Amino acid sequence: MSMTDITTANGTAPIPGPATPYQGDIARYWDHEARPVNLRLGDVDGLYHHHYGIGDVDHASLGDPTDSEREKKVITELHRLESAQADVLLDNLGAITPDATLVDAGCGRGGSMVMAHQRFGCKVEGVTLSAKQAEFGNRRARELGIEDSVRSRVCNMLDMPFATGSVAGSWNNESSMYVDLHDLFAEHSRILSVGGRYVTITGCWNPIYGQPSKWVSQINAHFECNIHSRREYLRAMADNRLVPQAVIDLTPATLPYWELRATSSLVTGIEEAFISSYKDGSFQYLLIAADRV
Ligand SMILES: C[S@@+](CC[C@H](N)C(=O)[O-])C[C@H]1O[C@@H](n2cnc3c(N)ncnc32)[C@H](O)[C@@H]1O
Ligand SMILES: CC(C)=CCC/C(C)=C/COP(=O)(O)OP(=O)(O)O
Ligand SMILES: [Mg+2]
Questions:
Q1: CA atoms within 13 A on the CB side of 40
Q2: What is the ipTM of this complex?
Q3: What is the pTM of this model?
Q4: Which helix H or strand E contains 18, and what residues bound it?
Q5: Are 46 and 140 contacting, i.e. CB atoms less than 8 angstroms apart?
Q6: Whose CA is nearest to atom 6 of ligand 2?
Q7: Beta pairing class for 283-292 and 192-205
Q8: Helix (H, G, I), strand (E, B) or coil at 172
Q9: Ligand 1 atom 12: residue of nearest CA
């Protein structure tokens, strides 16, 4: 236990304090996050995501621009695209049996975990720095009656409470830009069984551009994160026994989501940075699926 460990109200189980002051900032950030773009989309069907969408917009579903229900339809469509993103991540985990355990590193409010359990019938463990997010995810799991299989906890993804080689699949869905990639992949490599699968969907800067563009810097400042380059992902995986089986550039697939979002009432002000950096080639939306060898 570190000097910063905090004891829970009943005085028993210790909740580890943040490993660094930065992680304390990130925990506070997500404890206080309540953007309508995330809550209203989650309210559509009870799957709460903190990631972006992919796939073509179904313009027919949006109706006429003057339709009084249009805003509601846009929200439903944005949410459909975010769930489609999580589905593609899960597709890349391969065959997962019901007796397996999966780990969602940086699980947010737990939408992807619920989807993983519904698809594979297996146990899904999530870690987040935010106590509010973990409570939210566990409350949703109870409401769905799946709390024995889907559990979120407050924990640093660089030091997870899972035994070496105990996990069949693990992922980071837009959560790897908060940590050092060598430390992150060393920890995934430790918990995964040999032959296990790791998947990430992430935004990364493109080495071809030269350095992080002003748009990438703006996204970093907006979310208090540190976007890595594509090269850094591939090097850090190679150094940690994670061998890429698929590297998919999802940039063209995510642009329709951003262009639709930019027209909605739920804009947050970061839309221009994503659209501009995807278009000028300085930033890419990438899926990497790797085998633990
Ligand atoms: C953008 S959200 C993504 C949430 C989720 N993966 C999703 O797709 O909805 C980033 C998440 O990373 C988590 N995170 C950041 N740094 C972390 C760390 N060192 N350990 C655990 N979680 C971390 C945050 O608490 C937050 O839940
Ligand atoms: C692809 C990159 C660089 C992602 C950064 C991490 C991040 C904050 C993702 C979305 O979270 P969110 O769903 O809470 O954000 P928003 O409120 O913008 O929808
Ligand atoms: Mg969002």
A1: 15
A2: 0.99
A3: 0.96
A4: none
A5: yes
A6: 174
A7: antiparallel
A8: strand
A9: 106
